[in-house]
Amino acid sequence: MKIGVDYYPEQWNRELWNADAVLMAQTGVKLVRMGEFAWSRLEPRDGEFHFEWLDEAIKTFSRYAMGIVLCTPTSCPPMWLYETYPDIIQVGADGNRLQTGIRGHRCLNAPMFLYYAKRITEQLAKRYANNPSIAAWQIDNEIEAYPCTCEVCREQFRDWLIDKHDTIENVNAAFGNIVWSGEYSDVSQIKPPNAYPKAWQNPALCLEFSRFSSDTACRFISDMSQIIKRENPKAKITTNICITKDLPDIYRLCDGLDFTSYDNYPPVRIPENEEEFYSHSFNLDMMRGSNQKNFWVMEQLSGATGSWMPMGPTPRPGQIKGYALQAMAHGADTVIHFRWRTANKGAEMHWHGLIDHSNIPGRRFAEFAELCKIAPKFDVIETTELVSEVAILYSPDNDRAFRIQPQTEGFDYWEQLKCFHAAFSKYGVNVDIISPDADLTKYKAVIAPSMYVYSKNSAENIYRYVIKGGTVVLTARSGVKDPNNNCIMEPLPTVYREMIGAEISEYDPIGKDEQTIVDFAGNEYKCRQWCDILELGTARAYAEYKDCFYGGKPAVTMNRYCSGVAYYVGTICHMDFYKKFAGNIMKQTGIPRLNDLPQGVEVTTRTNGLDDYIFFFNNSERETDINLPKSMYSIIEDKEKNMLRLAPFGMEIVRK
Amino acid sequence: MKIGVDYYPEQWNRELWNADAVLMAQTGVKLVRMGEFAWSRLEPRDGEFHFEWLDEAIKTFSRYAMGIVLCTPTSCPPMWLYETYPDIIQVGADGNRLQTGIRGHRCLNAPMFLYYAKRITEQLAKRYANNPSIAAWQIDNEIEAYPCTCEVCREQFRDWLIDKHDTIENVNAAFGNIVWSGEYSDVSQIKPPNAYPKAWQNPALCLEFSRFSSDTACRFISDMSQIIKRENPKAKITTNICITKDLPDIYRLCDGLDFTSYDNYPPVRIPENEEEFYSHSFNLDMMRGSNQKNFWVMEQLSGATGSWMPMGPTPRPGQIKGYALQAMAHGADTVIHFRWRTANKGAEMHWHGLIDHSNIPGRRFAEFAELCKIAPKFDVIETTELVSEVAILYSPDNDRAFRIQPQTEGFDYWEQLKCFHAAFSKYGVNVDIISPDADLTKYKAVIAPSMYVYSKNSAENIYRYVIKGGTVVLTARSGVKDPNNNCIMEPLPTVYREMIGAEISEYDPIGKDEQTIVDFAGNEYKCRQWCDILELGTARAYAEYKDCFYGGKPAVTMNRYCSGVAYYVGTICHMDFYKKFAGNIMKQTGIPRLNDLPQGVEVTTRTNGLDDYIFFFNNSERETDINLPKSMYSIIEDKEKNMLRLAPFGMEIVRK
Amino acid sequence: MKIGVDYYPEQWNRELWNADAVLMAQTGVKLVRMGEFAWSRLEPRDGEFHFEWLDEAIKTFSRYAMGIVLCTPTSCPPMWLYETYPDIIQVGADGNRLQTGIRGHRCLNAPMFLYYAKRITEQLAKRYANNPSIAAWQIDNEIEAYPCTCEVCREQFRDWLIDKHDTIENVNAAFGNIVWSGEYSDVSQIKPPNAYPKAWQNPALCLEFSRFSSDTACRFISDMSQIIKRENPKAKITTNICITKDLPDIYRLCDGLDFTSYDNYPPVRIPENEEEFYSHSFNLDMMRGSNQKNFWVMEQLSGATGSWMPMGPTPRPGQIKGYALQAMAHGADTVIHFRWRTANKGAEMHWHGLIDHSNIPGRRFAEFAELCKIAPKFDVIETTELVSEVAILYSPDNDRAFRIQPQTEGFDYWEQLKCFHAAFSKYGVNVDIISPDADLTKYKAVIAPSMYVYSKNSAENIYRYVIKGGTVVLTARSGVKDPNNNCIMEPLPTVYREMIGAEISEYDPIGKDEQTIVDFAGNEYKCRQWCDILELGTARAYAEYKDCFYGGKPAVTMNRYCSGVAYYVGTICHMDFYKKFAGNIMKQTGIPRLNDLPQGVEVTTRTNGLDDYIFFFNNSERETDINLPKSMYSIIEDKEKNMLRLAPFGMEIVRK
Predict the structure, then answer these.
(1) β-pairing, A651-655 with A624-634?
(2) ipTM entry
(3) If you ran DSSP here, which 8-state letter would residue B270 be given?
(4) Keyword set for this entry (chains A, B, C) (predicted)?
(5) CA dist list (Å): C8 to A27, C33, C342, C345
(6) In the CATH scheme, what is the homologous superfamily, with its name and number, of domain C390-589?
(7) β-pairing, A564-569 with A554-561?
(8) CB contact under 8 A, C308 and B407
(9) What is the rounded distance in angstroms from the CA atom of residue A388 to the CA atom of residue A379?
(10) For chain A, which has fewer Cβ within 10 Å, the N-terminal or C-terminal residue?
(11) What CATH code would you report for C35-258?
(12) pLDDT tens digits, one per residue of C168-216
């Protein structure tokens, strides 16, 4: 595993560069990421390029055998560019143009921005794409599918719609514009739905605009990537993903890239209540699933976070090292810490790096140094990958659609995914988070929560999987919408009815209220948010409602379909249900389980086909012991062990 | 009683029309409402009218002996109209123009909107006003007194003010503009008070603007109504009222209309705590009181509600039928359910109709069918009306004024009205909600809560009533403001002092704090929000404060005035007080009471002068029994009964 | 002590003036403040001045030997001025111009506003500056450092920055603009940071803009003051301070003024929980400290408050009189009540004066009359002042900086100051709140909480004080920022390290979490928000952390430095700690303490060098007794007393 740091040469006096490089080399740093905010120093005036300082910075660090991750600086255009073309800045949902002085605020469709973005990317590519010190490229920074409503975006959105739907009549039909006499008689009447007032918006229009915004972000990354590839087809290119509410479609985003990278900020405060606890490993598995390969962490938690928002607590002992190793346990081969030294200036000066403002390395740096020290032991692991028998399907389209129409008070698409992820993780198995369109044949069980918006590809993919013997779990709010985000005139779950062997006669959006279900073994569980009332066809009831007017009606069903099995969970439960349910699925499908793992202990396995490396991570603040079934070889401690004693956030890796 | 449904022919394929009509006819549907959102199909291009489809729709349903309620479509102008005249859209309080694609967003003062609205209304009137299938007309949809601040509204508001006050000097005096050197030297300086920042606004200006907005809405409805009357003076015309914070003056709104209609969405979740529980019957009584006649329900709860907001729970068994019958118990002669089938497209696709997206009739439809089946039994009831001995005065002007200046934390004008309504309702009597200017002579007791803004008519009306022997209850915050919303320089309750025989020496706006009052019989009650400290003149104390520096001072008084009695309740209490107090008022005035009604059971009586029909409605989730004093004839079950067993939301109607 | 009232002759019929003056004279009122909102009557049209009515008003009241406090009316320009120059109104943070019809909304940098403001001030000065009835002048009203973003303010802010930093390069360096490529290439690119979106702002830019806004307010007051001084150099001039989030730098504001005045609205609701309770005396001490002299109260609580916000409770018996005397106990020589009679019109009609809308004097007026009656007894006190041995440093610059970057959830600069103030106050000593640049030599102990932004003057002042034998208490977040609001590259607390003999190896921003500290005597206290982890140099530990990874590390230290002592409190505690800590400081520095004062009782002392007058104020709702160590002479009751029985909000003053 390679350990790196984020570094901003343009923010520090040159005298510091060499001192920093020396300390990095001593510590064992192997990669230095730089450049993503440096446009104003690379091109201080229109067309006047200054690369000497970057040449020197690259030389300074590569002199000590560190590789450079070079970023394109398009996230922060320089002031002179705004001055000349003020309309390259995004316009917010309320119609106001953002102000300068911040970051990530350029409009990705603005023609003059694109002209200059391409030029600076080209210049960098020409100068550095064949420089052997460059280990990888990062395009832009934390790209978002931001819903810009500027005049250019409006125009392009109109074109995008007509490209897709052919005629204005088709758009009217797709949006159901007749409903409120909102039929467009001219394409110019189409407006992004983010305007005023917030409510009353057409969900079909909203979903299309959200897709358009995502496409915009993905196309920008792809176009910039092509510019570098043109100079060096072997250049390794990525963009760093940051999970926000405006996350672009991660599968499309990562499609043309060489590898996925992720900005990883696990929580410092660990909730006591198991119900509230979702390991950050969900996000890591999702990153691995974005293109089903190992990935990099491009920014890793290094200190207290905070900026315009108040600071949070400083990482607990073990978290700097442990969370980096947890990333490896889920498929990261490289972890780059954000950042070497905390910024003394600018809006993010309270987002702490490894070294504090004082420039005196302290406790966190010492822990980072330990990490660097043991990292070479993991070289054997770099050639391994995670093989999973369980997959959970994450669909960007459903994610978007649920944000547009929250189904009921408390309903949260991500929460449901994380519940299933946590339930299987508690048995110590690898879990993949993948696209509904991904190849499912290698899995023994596939969880497909709330397959809300119909996609022909995805539905056929799931059918093919079950027909050939797979086990699938579908849940409430599946098959509800057609691809235009309109309701389908068929009994729910529409296209999935045949597979689950049951249909929904009615539903009860209970929101914050609670109901109770009883499973076939007599166990009772509280459920919440949504209750589908099912009528059995070929299916059997796995659990039934206890009370209300649907007491005795099935809530969860199980159906043998062709060679496979389809479960349907018509409600949202708590962890007690999901854990038991996951256990039963694993029993049924023959996935081996580790029972009785202590709370917070996460177990994953990486393999190269010959050797298996098992990771035991203690994601809790309590020391805990694990007795191994047989003596195994500890990679970190270089010896055989029967028992693993895990400190808080401690990691052990054994070869099986 | 006639049962109907809301139907949107323009939203469905024509193949469905006939199938729907057949099912409606089988089910017993008697009325179909249509047209309120169909402008873009009636006039797809400027001046190009297409009525053939509407002709056919009307024919399709009237063929099965169903009457048509035809709506004018002015709530949703078509896109081509916005394109030509973008300034026909409202401008919000913050100065931003609303966007298209929603509903109810046209400015009711915009000249070009009015031109087109009149034309389409005229076209519809000419074609259908004498069509015998048209049972009634609905003007526009859920009209609101929306505070539009567009340039036209500003101008018209200025004219409205000068019309009313004659000179700019009078406006300055009425607004007290001298206070902050805000005296207008030119009429152009007058601006609606809805701008920026929200606070600091002059309450006199705010009240006038709110009255202007209400007048705008009322005038629009009246003008459109006249257009139809011109074609057929016997046309039955209404507009459907939806209770929102921008409710126009309901008395003025209904004044020129043939009948009142109401969009009735009672709550699905019934609060357990009696304190939180206000029956939706308050609203129904208010609708009957809007013009003191029986009314229609134009939209009736039919399924789970939700749209841009999350969905709520689905109606409980009994609610579809029970809430429709509850409306009848309070004076509805027609109940039209919203809507036949849930929309599959558009922003309101989660606002459920009787039939789900699937088009498979289910549990709720079955209950609706039952309702239709028994409806013919109520034909005898159609000629009856509610006669009440108790009235509560609702004043739109006070309602507005309290929104402008919330008196204290928690103070809520409607809550106070609803407390009194619930208190009397618990004794099984009819209660009217009427205008302070309505004829009071027929009532034995009149509750006049918080008569805040002085109206000469209302005050004289109340005085006349008491002088001739009536019993009135006044409450805190009466007589505070002159008609311009300024404070009166007299001891409170100013004009009402003489009548109540007491005056207020001081008040304590306690907000969320609590005090205690003790009534003449020694009962203690908590009180809240406001404490008037009274000095007795001719009055006697009904209750006194227990603590604080006004311990021992009267809080509630009773005064014999001329031939009548005037109570004054100087504080806000909880239901325990109001129930006891209502009981005492009824005892004093000789209104017969039903004691010991089970919680949630509502009893009202409709009469035709000969026969009395008593309605027993169980507005709760618990089955309950009522023992009748003697055997009575059940209209629903067609037999004599001594005991009524009411299912949850069950209704029994007996002839006395 | 002089008692006065605020009066608005322009709001009342002239018939009332004389009646009011007679009642004031009978009651014992000595001062009448007027004029601050009367511009539209003083200059109803451009250049047309009407002073006759003001002449008459002044005559009416001075006839009864009352002095006049005359206010300049620049807080509310007349409408005709806005009509001619609409851009004299402020532009809010979101870029929208405020509307007319409110107050305090003029832009203090708008050239045409300044032209007219100077002219009306000049006119008033020429006419009244030498009128012997004028006791004092008030400039404007409740001036705020409002962050106006209008075009003029933008331009002036740019000039202000260049004046201060010389070159655009220096501004770029000071703001760290390189961080996000935000380097200005032209001065026109500089924009106030209050725009859209709210977050992501550069803290260096924010602090400079906040300083600029404060400077704007201070300069305006100073300029207007000069105009009056030009006519009469002996005129006594002030401006009334209102504590809001946009408070200007009070030291700079009061610098050129003859005395400080304050709008004093202590809370009517007294919290039961000691933790929540901060006496309003903190604000009074701060006003005295603004220029280290006695001060006036220009507006004093007289009734229930409320306006656009709901009304709060009416003052409890004793509060009208008691809070006025509390102000005297902290250095007020004059208390003017807001207002004589409650406004019947305008936005503030619910902000109650001494007399209610009814114009019938009531309970509150009677208490005010009592106050007036005893006021002459305090004439001897007018020549006295408070001498303190403890000072707390309040820094406007730190106040601002902490608003810009809230350190952690719950962190509140003012709360910390108030905790220390309350802790010392509980021992019955005078406490000064002063500038970090004030002369400290006269204090035995100086509390310097969170000296966040470095100021050379302040740091040297504190060092000088300790070197010469003073005792100082520094606390967490000291020495963090350089004068540009950037972090200093040195171990914390940077410049104060040497003095405290310790340094901070790490900190933990725990926010709402809690930790525990144990002092040298074994007492445990909960701490919160922030934990500095200290390494001792020459210092000793006063308290250590108990748990977490820094258990056993010092949290509070004590260091002998030269002839003095420097404490450092590296965390935020609750009152239990501060009270004990203050007691220890007082013991160490030899400040005499009154132990066992009942909760809520405040004791201060005023002296003229010969006689000491001790004030005992019961700031609680419970009667309480104080046994004096020896018999003393009660100024209020004119007799010797051994025991003081204090009613709720009661005051006793004894001569020692």
Answers:
(1) antiparallel
(2) 0.96
(3) P
(4) Glycosidase, Hydrolase, Metal-binding, Zinc
(5) 74, 8, 10, 12
(6) Class I glutamine amidotransferase (GATase) domain (3.40.50.880)
(7) antiparallel
(8) no
(9) 22
(10) C
(11) 3.20.20.80
(12) 999 999 999 999 999 999 999 999 987 667 788 999 999 999 999 999 9
Tokens of B47: 């001046």
SS3 C139: coil
Mean pLDDT value across residues A263-282: 84
Nearest CB to C314 within list B186, B193, B508: B508
Chains with 3 or more CB pairs under 8 A to chain C:
A, B
| Domain A601-655 CATH (choose: 2.60.40.1180, 3.30.420.10, 2.40.37.20, 3.10.20.340) | 2.60.40.1180
- C269 φ, ψ to 5°? -80, 125
* CA angle in degrees (0–180, nearest 5) for A560-A565-A570: 95
* Alpha-carbon distances, residue A120 vs A68, A238, A601, B623, C505 (angstroms): 18, 17, 47, 76, 42
Quickly state the pLDDT bin for B94 (edges 50, 70, 90): confident
pLDDT attached to residue A271 = 82
Min Cα distance A586 → chain C (Å) is: 39
Rounded Cα–Cα distance for residues A342 and A355 (Å): 6
Nearest-Cα distance to chain B for C42, in Å, is 10
Task: Mark residue B114 as left, alpha or beta (left: phi above 0; alpha: psi -120 to 50; beta: remaining).
Answer: alpha
Q: Note if the pTM is more than 0.90.
A: yes
CA distance A12 to A169: 58
Q: Out of A176, A181, A486, name the one closest to residue B76 (CB).
A: A181
Closest CA to A33 of A171, A191, A139, A180: A139
If you count residue pairs, one on A and one on B, with CB atoms under 8 Å apart, how many are there?
Answer: 158
Residue B308 is labelled as binding a ligand: yes
Q: Which residues pair with A573 in a beta bridge?
A: A527
Whole-number Å distance between alpha carbons of A31 and A337 = 10
Largest separation between any pair of C-alpha atoms in chain C: 76
Average pLDDT of every residue of chain C = 96
pLDDT in tens, A364-417: 999 999 999 999 999 999 899 999 999 999 999 999 999 999 999 999 999 999
Residue B622 distance to chain A (closest CA, Å): 12
Please name the member of C181, C486, C509 whose beta carbon is closest to the beta carbon of A312: C509
Which residue's structure tokens are 């057409």? A202
CATH architecture of A2-87+98-144+217-379: Alpha-Beta Barrel (3.20)
Chain C residue with minimal CA distance to A86? C189
The amino acid at residue A526 is: K
Catalytic residues of C: 142, 299
- Option in B38, B304, B349 nearest A181 (CB): B38
Alpha-carbon separation of residue C316 from B70, C269, C361, C648 (angstroms): 62, 9, 16, 9
A511 to B312: CB separation less than 8 angstroms, yes or no: yes
Chain A residues touching residue C487 (CB < 8 angstroms) = 342-345, 349, 357
Q: Do C198 and A308 touch (CB under 8 A)?
A: yes
Q: Do B180 and C103 touch (CB under 8 A)?
A: yes
Q: Is B417 exposed, middle or buried, given 0-12, 13-18 or 19+ CB atoms closer than 10 A?
A: buried
Please choose, from the candidates C259, C262, C258, C257, the residue with its C-alpha nearest in 3D space to the C-alpha of residue C222: C257
Q: How many contacts, defined by CB atoms under 8 Å, are there between B and C?
A: 159
Q: What DSSP line would sit under B407-425, residue for residue?
A: -BTT--HHHHHHHHHHHHH
Question: Kind and range of the H or E element at A30?
Answer: none
Q: Is the Cβ pair A183, B359 closer than 8 Å?
A: no
B206 belongs to an annotated ligand binding site: no
pLDDT band at residue A196 under the 50/70/90 scheme: low
d(CA C288, CA C294): 6
Domain boundaries, chain A: 2-87+98-144+217-379, 390-589, 601-655
